[in-house]
UniProtKB/TrEMBL annotation:
Residues 520-614 form the Histidine kinase/HSP90-like ATPase domain. It is an enzyme of class 2 (transferase). It comes from Solidesulfovibrio magneticus str. Maddingley MBC34. The lineage of its organism: Bacteria, Pseudomonadati, Thermodesulfobacteriota, Desulfovibrionia, Desulfovibrionales. Pfam families: 7TMR-DISM_7TM, HATPase_c, HisKA_3. This is histidine kinase.
């Protein structure tokens, strides 16, 4: 690419249509402290002599002139003579972010202007803008004269190169920058909404809030800064450049405080609060300067802020390396992201303070930074989900083991009830029967004393009642019929016994196609029926109770106890409730479903359903 030498740029070998736009870099004639119009160069008698030649893009600050370094503020004129090819083309010049006001002439015609030139801050109106100036090439030299005044910024000159090309080419560059910018902003907006939703769902996880604020500040900084061609103007046309400048310079330091809080919310042990406080004090002081001081003071403070940012970047990188070495979740992604972010911001600092560059990697650095932050958050969430899954698996194992132990306890309890029932039946009941028989024999003898005969008869009656109660107690603990497959007989006996004791009509209806039924949970179904009948007799005030046990074609073993009493909701207002909990516990232990509700035509209906596996049943010889 050709480069200007001593104020002349030869473009005769450069085909703009074929080779694309060209940056007008190199040596421009430099006229210090003069705002010369094109007419001044038409004089053949005493044309102005340049103060020297200056490489653009560049700044006149600290340039040597007559043995003295020039200040950053002042005014100057730049001149460049273009030698284009013989083609007759309509060209355009692209000028962006020239500090702080300028006018551009091409062959004596004013083609671009931004702000109002002046020789002091009182007479100058600075304005940073993007301009596409049209220039006609008719195969003749093009004389460019650029007047620049700077009394508002720390350094005067051109930070970005002036581009020459076809209008469509330069428009395409502008459109491409804004397209990438909108892609970046749209991606960040999605990140903001997503992580804000996460924060409102879980307020304790403050890292999602800081990540959202970080993305928002990145948007504010990028859309109001030079690398995006001030994308904000696409949505808010003609926005005041001074406001854009303040938003841009405030967003970046505030972002460092938010980023620190983001890292500290993830790794509170590693990132110190003391450094956070120092960072906050620095940023508060800078924001106050931006809001209250002139541009000269602001950009001087920005210089020192940039130097302190280099130290802060080093601290971030060191701490993230420590977090990686300590195996913190997501620290590797955050380190890679901050390396990208540091490279982008340091290149901007280098370009604005030390040297100049033609391109910016800020967008790609920001994209990498946000992407790696999102990956770090995703890794932390994934690890949290994995931990929850492992914990759930352990809890499920514990619950299975607890269920198994509960079944063992219930089985042991039933076995103990069976033993006590047999002991009562075979021991105490037999002794009481024997005593009753002897008393009955005594009553048949003639006893001289009439009172003794009456006492013996009374004792015989009491023994008869005691035998009945002992048998009832034995059957309640473990019905003698409750052997494998004989649950129907036990339920029928339960109906007869309770009906006889309570005076309530109780009927049993059984419909088990498999005989005998070998389901291992029949004992628990009997206990549930026993408790349901007892509750109905005690609370429902029924005149009829029906017990049914059946097995349908879907191999669902279903126990139903129904009464015609006052109903479940009415009875539930009475004291008690232990029996219902016991039924629910037994049903849960055997994996059955239990429902207790009011029947449609009155009364209460208790239904317990249990899946009956095929290998737990026995069929007849014919299959």
């Amino acid at each position: 690419m050709p480069v200007a030498e001593r104020g002349v740029l030869d473009l005769s070998e450069w085909d703009v249509a074929r080779d694309g736009p060209i940056a007008l870099n190199g040596q421009w004639e430099f006229y210090w402290d003069q705002l010369l119009a094109p007419d001044a160069f038409k004089s053949d008698i005493a044309p102005p002599q340049p103060s020297g030649f200056m490489n653009l893009p560049g700044t006149w600050k600290d340039q040597e002139l007559e043995g003295k370094a020039l200040p950053g503020q002042g005014q100057a004129t730049f001149r460049l003579r273009l030698l284009p090819g013989p083609e007759n083309l309509q060209l355009a010049l692209r000028l962006i972010s020239i500090h702080a006001a300028y006018r551009l002439w091409a062959n004596g015609k004013l083609v671009a202007q931004s702000g109002e030139l002046g020789r002091s801050s009182a007479t100058e109106t600075p304005h940073r803008s993007l301009v596409l100036a049209r220039v006609a090439s008719q195969g003749k030299p093009i004389d460019l004269v650029l007047q620049v005044s700077n009394h508002a910024f720390r350094r005067g000159g051109l930070l970005y190169p002036v581009l020459l090309g076809l209008p469509d080419q330069l428009e395409l560059i502008h459109s491409r920058i804004w397209s990438w910018g909108m892609f970046f902003v749209g991606s960040l907006l999605i990140m903001i909404v997503y992580h804000l939703v996460l924060y409102f769902l879980k307020r304790k996880e403050s890292s999602t809030l800081y990540f959202s604020l970080d993305c928002l500040l990145l948007i504010c900084y990028y859309v109001t800064s030079d690398p995006s061609d001030w994308l904000i103007n696409l949505f808010i046309p003609n926005m005041n450049s001074g406001i854009l400048q303040k938003i841009s310079v405030i967003s970046y330091p505030v972002m460092s405080s938010v980023v620190y809080r983001f890292y500290r919310s993830l790794y509170p042990v590693d990132f110190l609060r003391f450094i956070q406080n120092l960072c906050d004090l620095r940023n508060i002081a800078f924001v106050l300067i931006v809001l209250t001081q002139s541009n000269i003071v602001i950009y001087t403070a920005l210089y020192w802020l940039a130097l302190s940012t280099v130290l802060l970047n080093c601290y971030f990188l060191v701490m993230l390396i420590i977090c990686v070495r300590r195996g913190r979740d997501g620290a590797s992604f955050l380190l890679l992201g901050y390396l990208s972010f540091s490279a982008a911001t340091l290149s901007e600092i280098y370009g604005h303070i030390i040297s100049f560059f033609e391109g910016s990697i800020l967008l790609f650095g920001f994209l990498a930074f946000v992407l790696f932050q999102a990956l770090a958050m995703a890794q932390r969430f994934a690890n949290a989900f994995t931990a929850v899954e492992n914990l759930s698996a352990d809890l499920r194992t514990e619950m299975d083991e607890r269920t198994r132990l509960e079944r063992e306890i219930v089985n042991v309890s039933e076995e103990e009830r069976r033993r006590l029932s047999h002991d009562l039946h075979d021991g105490l009941c037999q002794q009481l029967v024997g005593t009753r028989v002897r008393c009955a024999a005594l009553t048949r003898r003639q006893i001289a004393e009439h009172d003794v005969e009456a006492e013996v008869a009374a004792i015989a009656s009491l023994l008869t009642d005691s035998v009945g109660q002992a048998y009832d107690l034995s059957r309640g603990l473990w019905p003698v019929e409750l052997d494998p497959g004989q649950v129907e007989a036990s339920l029928a006996e339960l109906a007869r016994r309770v009906s006889r004791a309570s005076g309530i009509v109780i009927q049993f209806c059984g419909n088990l196609p498999c005989s005998p039924c070998r389901n291992e949970h029949l004992v628990q179904l009997y206990r549930i029926a026993q408790e349901a009948v007892a509750n109905a007799v005690k609370h429902a005030k029924p005149s009829r109770i029906t017990i049914s046990l059946g097995c349908g074609p879907d191999r669902q073993l279903t126990l139903a106890v129904r009464d015609n009493g006052i109903g479940h909701r009415t009875a539930a207002r009475t004291s008690g409730g232990l029996g219902l909990r016991m039924m629910a516990y037994r049903a849960r232990t055997i994996g059955a479903s239990l429902s207790i509700d009011d029947a449609e035509d009155g009364g209460t209906r208790v239904v317990c359903s249990l899946a009956c596996p095929a290998d737990k049943t026995s069929e007849d010889a014919d299959g």
